[in-house]
Each structure stands twice: as C-alpha cells, then as structure tokens.
Amino acid sequence: MKLFNPTLLLALSACSSHAAPLTADQNWPQWRGPLANGIAPNGNPPTTWSETSNVKWKVKLPGRGSATPIVWENQIFIQTAIATDKRIEAPAEKAAAAPQPQVAGAPQTPAEPPPGRRRPGGGGGGGGFGRGEKPTEVHQFVLLSVDRQTGKTLWQQTVREEVPHEGAHRDHGFASHSPITDGQHVYSWFGSRGLHCYNLKGALKWQKQFGQLRTKNSFGEGNSPALFGKTLVVTWDHEGEDFIAAFDKYSGQELWRQTRDESTSWATPFIVQHGGKSQVIASASRKVRSYDLATGKLLWECAGLGSNVIPTPVAGHDMVYAMSGHDGRKLLAIRLGREGDLTGSDAVAWSLDKSTPYVPSPLLQGRLALLLRGKGRQALLFRCQSGPAPLRSPAARSFAGRLRLSGGGQWTNLSDGPQRRFHRHQELRQAGSARDQPAGRPVRRLPGHRRQ
User: Fold this and answer.
1) Is residue 25 exposed (0-12), middle (13-18) or buried (19+ Cβ within 10 Å)?
2) 8 Å CB contact between 15 and 9
3) How far is 175 from 82, CA to CA, in rounded Å?
4) Domain ranges of the chain
5) Could you give phi then psi for residue 281, rounded to 5 degrees?
6) Residue 109, exposed/middle/buried by CB under 10 A (0-12, 13-18, 19+)?
7) For residues 71 and 27, is the Cβ–Cβ distance under 8 A?
8) Is the pLDDT score of 321 beyond 90?
9) Over the stretch 416-442, which tens digit does the pLDDT of each residue have?
10) Confidence label for 134 from pLDDT (cuts 50, 70 and 90)
11) What local confidence, expressed as pLDDT, does residue 83 receive?
12) Cα–Cα dist 130/64, whole Å
C-alpha cells in the first residue's frame, strides 16, 4: 500500500467562534465559495503565516485528492480517495476472436470507429500528457467531516469501494470533485461513483448511480455539482452518451434530464439569475449552453470554445463569461436575456482568442475580471464590459493555480512546485499593478491534498 501524507491546514483568523449561526455568505459551502465565483464577501484571511503564527491546527488526511474543502459553521467537509491493500490482477488480454461467418447482405461492423468519431461509451485513446494507468488497487471513495475548531475527524463515510475503471491525470487522482452543502445536508458527488446525500451527522439519506464515465485519454473526472433552492444539478460529459440532470435535493428524485452532444469536459455548471429566471450555464467544448433551472428547457447555446474545457464560467454586468485554454484558447462574453443559437451574433459582446486559462477559473470583482493566463504564469485583468485588451501583471508560476478573493479585494494564488507557496497581491486596480509578494514561509497543503 502506498502511503500518502496529505495535510489540512486552517488559518487562525478564519476559525474564530461565532455566537450566532453563520449565514450562507459567511460559509464556504461549495466549489468556488458562497457565490460560486471564488469571492468571499465577508472574508478576512491572514496574509502571513508560519508553523508558529496564524495557524490554529494542522492534521494529516487519509488518501489522495484535489477536492476543495467546503465549510459550514463548525464543520469542514472534504472528499478523498484511499488506496487499500486489496488488489486485483489485471485481466489477461482476450484471445483474438475466431472469424465470424458472413451473412450475405448483412452490414459489416468495423472493428474501430471511423476517424474523427467517438466510440459510444468508450474511453479516450492512448497517450496524453499526464495520463495515469488504470489501477489494480481497490479504492475507498470517502467523505470526511472535520471539526473546524480542532481538526478532529467528526465522521468518515465510504460512499463507494471499488477499483477505478480507468486511470486519472497525475495532477489530481480520483477525488477531484468537491462536495456541496445547504447547511442541512451535504452532497457528495464522485462522478462514476455516484451522487450521495448525507445529513450533517453523517447519516445517508439517498444516493444515485449513473454508470461509468469514459474520459478523454483517461485524464479522469473532476467537475462538481451546483445547487440553488431545492435543485441540485450535475453534468455528465465524456466519450459516451452525455447529459445534464437536475434532482430534488430532499428526495433525490430526478426533476429533468437533457441529452448533450459533447466530448469530455470538466467545467462545473454555474447557476445565475437574470430577468426573474434562474438558469444553469454549462460550459463545454462544442457549445456553452443555458438551461431553465425549473424545467430543463434549453434557453440558448453558443459555439466557439476550444477543447478540454475546465474553467467554470462567471457572470456579471448582464453577461456570462465562458472560456477555455487548451487547443483553441477562447473567452466569450455572452449577453444574458437572449434565446436560441447565439453563435456569431451580437449576443457575443466581445471575445478573446489568446491568454485564456486552461485550468484556473476566473474571478470577477466590480468592473474587472481576473484570470491566470494559460497555466498560471501571468495574471491578467480585463474590463468586463469593454474587453478584450488585458491589463497585465506578473504572477508566480502556478500550474492549475487556485485563486481566492477575500472581502477586502485582495487575491491570492497558490504556486505549485517542490514546495507550494502562497502569494498575496494588492487590491485589484484598473492600472493592473498587482504586485506579487511571498506571504510567509512555504506551505504544502491548502486547499487540496496530494501525495508529498
């Protein structure tokens, strides 16, 4: 069994006691925070810390993963995948099948799909940078509840135990989905391992299974669910049959499902209200689409992004900003309130075809949007309404860097490397003069957890 030594670290100023229950925007209930956009309106995190300063506790976590911890009052929830001592032997290659007799007039089925076509239900083809091989160890897919004041594990639930059916990218492993909570229940989404609802004491209320995702190049899974009111939304985009579906958060009953024609994407759906209507934005390679949250009706769609879509969209100024940064870098500023196919129309207020993020999702504050360019080597500021000329400022190299904006307008990113380091930056300014400053000594774990 491989041993992993991930650590969860809590900054001191973020864990003070509260006499009254916290409101939703004072918690961190989902991937990208209370507003699903990376901004903590009431946040006041420390900008320096060390082993002896501004750290209340630090604990090791079992397993491996890159899921974001979520916080509700005195509980922290995080997902992890734990490799066990149980192993299975890789199945032997099947012997070549004997030639089948041909029936006159019967259509012949090719052994491989035509070039450029996906095999229905099949995984990605060989190769691919960072691709991991299919494991032979049984993994436990676990949801943890940790006491926010002490770091003590309150409860641990194994939602599924199995051998993963395919590999995962070496940067994230098998626990990249983040849970989500409404303060009454916590919803654990593990993609191929299903959707599970627990109360805050760890009792299972309902669960759903959807089959197996077959991701491009076996890069693995990684989006998170979205929640608004009583409706929980997940997307299922892979190298097979695709869909987006909504569920009643109390019972797990499926409210609606819409089929999609997509390749593998990792973007988390984003719910926005506009014109008195709630809509869920699903960003993907072929099209960005908007669905009525209540009915699932397709409201609008817009083509133009590149492949391997990962960033989650953000919204503001009556527009939604969707982007990709792999093969075909693109940022689309799409006006809300339109219907139908918006591709090439004036509904696209402006667009950009360079300097867009591959993995990091953007921040939006006031009139400015902040991106990590490409793989995080440079931070870019944009004027949301006018675009597209960026206001550049240097940032430390931060592959798959995560950005968090506190209520004071300061933003931080986490640099990757032999030793991870936080960098704090000045308040967003129109001049784009964010200055990179090391914040304390290097730290290794926050918010994700990976093998040391």
Assistant:
1) middle
2) no
3) 9
4) 233-353
5) -100, 125
6) exposed
7) yes
8) yes
9) 444 444 455 544 443 333 333 333 333
10) confident
11) 94
12) 16
Q: Are 381 and 398 in contact (CB under 8 A)?
A: no
Residue type, 429: R
Token pair 């900054």 in the structure block, residue: 11
φ, ψ (nearest 5 deg) of residue 104: -55, 130
Q: Compute the distance between CA of residue 71 and CA of residue 33 in angstroms, rounded to an integer.
A: 9
User: 436-440, long-range: CB within 8 Å, 24+ apart, which pairs?
Assistant: 436/393, 436/394, 436/395, 436/396, 439/47, 439/48, 439/49, 439/412, 440/48, 440/49, 440/50, 440/53, 440/54
pTM exceeding the 0.85 threshold for the entire prediction: no
Contact yes or no for 302/338 (Cβ under 8 A): no
Find, among 25, 60, 46, 68, the residue nearest to 360 by Cα.
68
Q: In the block, which residue shows the tokens 């990792």?
A: 266
Give the pLDDT score at 1: 28
Q: Which residues does 428 contact at the CB level (< 8 Å), separation at least 6?
A: 365, 366, 368, 370, 381, 409, 411, 434
Q: Residue 441, by phi and psi: left (phi above 0), alpha (psi -120 to 50) or beta?
A: beta
Q: In a 3-state reduction of DSSP, which class is residue 371?
A: strand
Domain 233-353 has CATH 3.30.430.20: no
Is 40's pLDDT higher than 90? no
Q: Which two tokens stand for residue 147?
A: 């006491």
**DSSP one-letter code for 193:** G
In the numeric block, the tokens 């309130």 are attached to 337
79 touches 175 (CB < 8 A): yes
User: Using CA atoms, how far apart are residues 109 and 195, in angstroms rounded to an integer?
Assistant: 36
State the amino acid at position 401 in one-letter form.
Answer: G
Residue range 264-273: mean pLDDT, rounded: 93
